[in-house]
Amino acid sequence: MRYLVLAFVLTFAILLSGCQSASPAPPVPAPTERRQATGDGLWEIVLTTDPDPIPSNEHFHVSLTLVPKTKDAGPRPEIEAVDAYMPDHRHGMRTQPRFVKGADGRYRAEGLLFHMSGYWEIFVAVKTARGQEGLVFPVTLE
Ligand SMILES: [Cu+2]
């Protein structure tokens, strides 16, 4: 009886290891990072979305991180707002995203929604040491 149990356990272990090597986990794709530099070239805003890629007609969230381009980039800019437009159609979104400021130059805008396919621009209002400016992240929604 003991050998029977041992044989069963061994067979089960071999089957399990066979399963694992036969179907490796699919590689997790790297997130799409969209980057735009501030006008003075000192800072860069890195934008990612959740989900990625941006879905059509479903809510998505935007994460923004401020990254210095040089060692002496100076004071970190502030992101003040995030919005999105279809410039060719002269309209924006039908939703009002909720903007959340995090720590260490990280921000999040929740509840964006692209209600039609085509060319969109995600607009990020930034306040740098030189003043206010707007950075545009182009997005084409299939
Ligand atoms: Cu449109």
Q: What's the CATH architecture name?
A: Sandwich
Which sheet architecture does the biggest sheet show?
Answer: 5 strands, antiparallel
The overall average pLDDT, rounded, is: 88
Q: Which blocks of ≥5 consecutive residues have pLDDT under 50?
A: none
Number of β-strand runs = 9
| Helical coverage, percent range | 10-25%
Form type? globular
Distance between the termini: 63 Å
Give the name of the CATH superfamily: Domain of unknown function DUF4426
Strand order of the largest sheet: 1-2-3-7-6
Order of helices and strands: HEEEEEEEEE
Describe, in plain words, how this protein is organized in 3D.
- The chain has one domain (34-141): Sandwich (Immunoglobulin-like), CATH 2.60.40.
- The protein is 15% helix and 47% strand.
- It is built from 1 helix and 9 strands, in the order αβββββββββ.
- It has one helix at residues 2-22; strands at residues 34-37, 43-50, 59-68, 78-86, 91-92, 98-101, 106-113, 118-128, 131-141.
- Strand 4 and strand 5 (91-92) form a beta hairpin.
- It is globular and about 75 Å long.
- It binds copper (II) ion (CU).
- Copper (II) ion (CU) is lined by residues 86, 89, 91, 116, 118.
